[in-house]
TrEMBL record:
The name this protein goes by in its record: DeoR family transcriptional regulator
InterPro entries: Carb_Metab_HTH_regulators (IPR050313), DeoR-like_C (IPR014036), DeoR_HTH (IPR001034), NagB/RpiA_transferase-like (IPR037171), Tscrpt_reg_HTH_DeoR_CS (IPR018356), WH_DNA-bd_sf (IPR036390)
Pfam families per the UniProt record, alphabetical: DeoRC, HTH_DeoR
Ranges in a coiled coil: none
Taxonomic source organism: Paracoccus versutus
Key word Coiled coil present: no
GO MF assignments: DNA binding; DNA-binding transcription factor activity
Keywords of the record: DNA-binding, Repressor, Transcription, Transcription regulation
Amino acid sequence: MSDSILFTGADKKLRRQELLLEQVLRTGYVSVEEISRRFNVTPQTARRDLADLLTTGRVRRCHGGMTPAVPFDAMTRRVRRSQNTAAKRRIADIVADLVHDESSVYLDSGSTMEIIAEALASKRRGLTVTTTSARIAVELSEREDFIVHVPTGTVRGGDNSIVGESVAPWLQEQRFDILVMTAGGVSEDGGISIDTPIEVPILTAAVAASSRVILAVDATKLEFMAPERLMDISKINDFVTNARLSRGLMNRVSAAGINLHSF
């Protein structure tokens, strides 16, 4: 978060820790550095806040910060994996056809992306894959002709995505032929949004490092805004979906010269 929060008075420690607990349960990860920056406290104070919150049993310590003791939104993630699987498999097949053998590819995390990874493993050869999904990394590492890279970070429960403040700077140093991403929502005005703020700098860095960006979403994500706005749809090159676009969104896609692959 860009703005710091300064509390005064006897209850400042309690209020700060309440907000920290709310943030870690919502986003899945908070670092000591972020605590210090957001609340304008020293790293030592941030670590004491972390230690106090550990006693609640609702968070656990991880490298450089804390995550929820119960996996992040695990039930929601399990439900998503079972939804719209037929449409997601068709989307995955189209995406795999857009990727060339021996390309360098960045793969986002999420239930749709896991099915896309399966399609890539079935259809493509010699890929160099970078991903923030530990689940996808393990699956694709079974392919002897694939090279798989993952950043240093914390594996978040539920979706097994790799998060942390070191991920975005590392991605800024990489270069990819293709980025394949999903989204929490795509609004009629072309706004692409995602579920948690910690993913915004990660995806922003990955997009900047990629020559071509493919957005793959099923119909449930259209005409919807997830909590965190990421970017405008004009930043993508290919849009793969099983939905018929609204007139407003179709106009945005056409104006931006985006290749639409729908069924």
